[in-house]
Amino acid sequence: xxxxxxxxxxxxxxxxxxxxxxxxxxxxxxxxxxxxxxxxxxxxxxxxxxxxxxxxxxxxxxxxxxxxxxxxxxxxxxxxxxxxxxxxxxxxxxxxxxxxxxxxxxxxxxxxxxxxxxxxxxxxxxxxxxxxxxxxxxxxxxxxxxxxxxxxxxxxxxxxxxxxxxxxxxxxxxxxxxxxxxxxxxxxxxxxxxxxxxxxxxxxxxxxxxxxxxxxxxxxxxxxxxxxxxxxxxxxxxxxxxxxxxxxxxxxxxxxxxxxxxxxxxxxxxxxxxxxxxxxxxxxxxxxxxxxxxxxxxxxxxxxxxxxxxxxxxxxxxxxxxxxxxxxxxxxxxxxxxxxxxxxxxxxxxxxxxxxxxxxxxxxxxxxxxxxxxxxxxxxxxxxxxxxxxxxxxxxxxxxxxxxxxxxxxxxxxxxxxxxxxxxxxxxxxxxxxxxxxxxxxxxxxx
Length: 447
Known about the structure:
This protein has a single domain, classed as Amino acid/polyamine transporter I (Up-down Bundle). It is mostly helical. It has helices at 15-26, 35-70, 77-85, 87-116, 127-144, 146-173, 191-204, 221-250, 254-260, 263-270, 272-297, 299-306, 325-335, 343-371, 385-406, 414-446. The two termini are 40 Å apart. Helix 1 (15-26) packs across helix 11. The longest helix is centred in the first third of the chain and has 36 residues, at 35-70.
């Protein structure tokens, strides 16, 4: 039998490929941002689009870069929390993130159906089989390895961005008259509308930590992550800003934009051909997001199984491609059961679960600064402990406002919010079961 080559001999991601994966993991283009104008209106949309990334994303990105520079290892955030807070909270982190990602992954096939309806108006009737084809095609790609996912992400990322570049160009060339941005204001908006607008922006800017779970599969990970995350953030923000401004200047009805998506803007500015191009971009976005996010989440159960928190089979690597194919298949099976929720319900559940795990990462950052102040950090946030605490309060505050808004009115937002909170509580229940099972196995072995 021939000896398998060491992991170091396998191809690794380079900065441009990682930037493409980060872009697709976090964003995938403005697709999914359409509800913002319906929730926040003309005067609130840009205000929340500018403020939310500052208080929600920048602290998160800085935290991820510092912790990843200390520990660029497979499992990323799970390993960071385990070192700082112990195995119990690491399980919380892994469990919450695993569950949140199932919800997140379920959103993308639903979005694919939405944009495909531009070409096939009756495709909603075939939602389940189409979604299943998307899910299991991505499984096959992920089993082939991280580099095929990276190369595919470059292609899909281009397919996402090119239609918007054309849209922006057509919109600018056809513009005549005085250009002015609407004055920023949240006046007249209900608390629930503000909360849903926050959820929309937060969801379109989350996932920076997900891209660290495969750090050992990245070439020169510390430098590459800093460079790739910076490129991705600037690209995402600029594209989002231009997309919202273009929508505002078009005079489109916001309810129509919410229902039909950005392809309706293409039809307004360029006719059917541009609407079709944006629809294709939306379909590419959904496919790219699914593959990129599945790549990150499949590494979490792999490392949790190493700590006897999940079944050892989840760590089984493919004999040829060295990918955690059992974990990938299990994740896809669970996601296949989640596709019946609506987009708005998935949005609330998704952000609520993600925010809880993110809170543990901020605590981890502070604890490791206290426990290991002298440890080498190639990237270090230029703040002391007090400054880190204040920085961490910013995203936590936004999270609490959005969650409180979901409970502020009776209606469709309360049920998914309650479901999300109940799901968070399952972490402790499963942890207790794991401890009981270990004790039972130890007693049985002893006697």
